[in-house]
Every structure is written in structure tokens, then in C-alpha cells.
Amino acid sequence: MKESRELELKATITNTFLKTVSAFSNYNTGKIIFGVDDNGKIVGLENIETLFRFRK
Hints:
Layout: E1 7-10, H1 17-25, E2 31-34, H2 49-53
Parallel strand pairs: 1-2
InterPro entries: Schlafen_AlbA_2_dom, Schlafen_AlbA_2_dom_sf
Domain Schlafen AlbA-2: 3-49
């Protein structure tokens, strides 16, 4: 699995991930996968609640 214009891999959730979400929402299609590093290795997420906090 490699990143492309339609796929973004995020090993962690940082305060700047919303920029990526915004960029993908302005594009026709795309997926952001959290808990996967740039090499495609599943690393999991330590604090999944951080992601859900931004849903509101």
C-alpha cells in the first residue's frame, strides 16, 4: 500500500490532520487511513478518542 493522490496514510493523529481531510474533501475521491505508517505497516492508534473529538 502506497500513498497517492487518492490515498493518504497517517500513523498518528495530530492537530494538522484536518488539513488533509480538507484537501481530500476538495478532491473528487480519496481515502485517509489512520494507524498505518508511510511504508504501509499497521501501527495502530494510541488514542482513538482524539479522532472522534473532531467529529462535532
